[in-house]
Specification:
Elements: H1 30-38, E1 43-47, E2 51-57, E3 60-63, E4 65-66, E5 76-82, E6 85-91, H2 101-104, E7 121-124, H3 125-128, H4 134-152, E8 164-166, E9 171-173, E10 180-181, E11 186-194, E12 200-204, E13 216-219, H5 226-238, E14 242-253, E15 258-267, E16 281-285, H6 287-296, H7 307-316
Amino acid sequence: METTAEEQLIGPLLLARGTIDRSSALRADERWLERAWTDPSTRVLVIDNGHTLVRRTGDEVHAVLFTSGDAPPGPRYLLGLEDGVAYFAVAAPLPGIPKGDVNGRVTVPMSLGDTPEGEPVAAGLRQVGGLLGDRDAGLLVYAVALEAWHTTHEYCPRCGTRTNVQAGGHIRVCPQDASQHFPRVDPAVIMLVRDENDRCLLARGPQWPEGRLSILAGFVEPGESLEHAVAREVAEEVGVTVVNPRYLGSQPWPFPRSLMLGFFAEATSIDLTPDAEEIAEARWYSREELEQALESGELRLPPPVSIARRLIETWYGGELTGDW
């Protein structure tokens, strides 16, 4: 069967890349973990509040990786193996970055040409997730997600006792009641809705500035299928009924722990009644109207690092400009 543009995303899902073997069977082997940590070939990515150190070499951006001997002290998480090399993450202040700078200042711009060559700078996934190579992008997404979970799950939800980190950072165990707690992933659907004239529905949340539009999204509720979540969220947010949700791909979005599941859906109604608490404005765009709005600057789209941008470009049939 011939593949159509609707059945295959245009462009890569930039936060869904990775090359390492997560090596889950080794996480419970404390002796192996200790040997791997002290191995001179082991490499460590330091993560602090969702940021790490990167540096530019020519036209490429790389994560700064340390040996275990040079890495700062802190909780460590096994990320996996590649070609016999073990990769860990350590949650600690970034070496060489003044304390507090990471929280309010990201020093890596989206333009590679503006990045000082060879100088380590602090950056987050939104800034460099699309600039890193496959291995480093995968390592950073993984580390960001683990750090975010550990930061908010230090205590047992049953009895309130501080839990202990085990299995290379993939389990927290309560010393009081022996309950085990695993990293959470919150599934969220994100959907490009089209009407019978093949127009695309774009909307803006109340917290966003004018002109910053995207497609609709929402969390999957308990006991709900992905397809039902697509229909429910669209109906709740803009009052439109949709059918035939079709899955196109998924991408981790660790802000702090989402997994975005991308869909196309067909609208059976076009009248928009936005929920004022969730949607500030919403409208239908033809391809020509979208082009004109982007060219005039009245509309900006999510950056290429997001699955929203990939779904919009897949509907459009090619790459677009005009990032947030």
